[in-house]
Structure formats: C-alpha cells, structure tokens
Amino acid sequence: MPRRRPGALRAPHPKLYALHQPYRIDRLSPRTSAAVHRAERETDAEEVWPGATETALYWCRRFLARPGRYLEISYAGCPCPSDSLEDVTEARELLERVVVVLPVPARRELEALLAVLDAELWRRTLPDPFAFRDPRRRGGSWWHHRLRGEPFG
Length: 153
Description:
Order of helices and strands: HHHHHH
Helix content: 40-55%
Distance between the termini: 63 Å
Number of helices: 6
Structural class: mainly alpha
Oligomer: single chain
Number of domains: 1
Mean pLDDT: 85
Strand content: under 5%
Shape: elongated
C-alpha cells in the first residue's frame, strides 16, 4: 500500500475545517453577521430563532425576484414559524424584531440592507384600500397594508 504524501498529511481535514466556518449572512459583513447570530441566540422572543434572519432575507429576496411589474403578496401555507416566512410581510416583521435588538453599528448595516429591499417592495406592490378589514393583518407597519392575492386554503 502506498504511503501518504507529506503535503496530504499536513493539509487540514475538510470535515474538521467545515465545522469551524464562521456564521455568514449574504450581503452583510462578518461582524454584523456575528452580531445578528448572537442576538438571535440571546433573544427571548419565540418568533426569533438562530438562522431566522438569514431565512427571512432569503424569502424577501425570493419574493422580489419573481417576474412581473406588480406582485401580490400571498398568505403563508403553514403556520409554522419557519414556513410562515414565505409570507413576505411576516418575514419583514421578523427582520424588524431583529433590528431592534442589534447593537448600533450592526443595526445601521442591516437597516441599510432593509432599506433597499423595502424600496423594491414598495415599488412592486400596490396599496390595499381595504386592508383594515382583514383581521389577519396585524400591526401598523406599511408592509401589512399592501395588496394581497388569494389566501391559501
């Protein structure tokens, strides 16, 4: 049996190296990503769990990547916390909860990212004049008062 080369012996093992990868959120600096991860772990709110911010940003970007000039927001199909983020208003609400508990530098960076997403959401959705009649639209944030499509189920 051939012996292993010295370079192969000194090289880091890929499985061990993968375990120590830093927590990184797309389009955020490593410092802000670490602050978000720390805030998610230390927050007592049931709606926020480790990885919630990354999941919410994913669903917001996925919603805004849909084709068409105007988009209708649809209700989530499942009431599970992670599945409810398919509803972009729920995802945006969760991001707002995370922004509040972040330290100031991380908050500014996440708010700058959210400002870009909010501008696109505002541009591609229409206001709903009858939003006040729907009991499922809680909160006074502007994203709850945008035009919605047909509800699931």
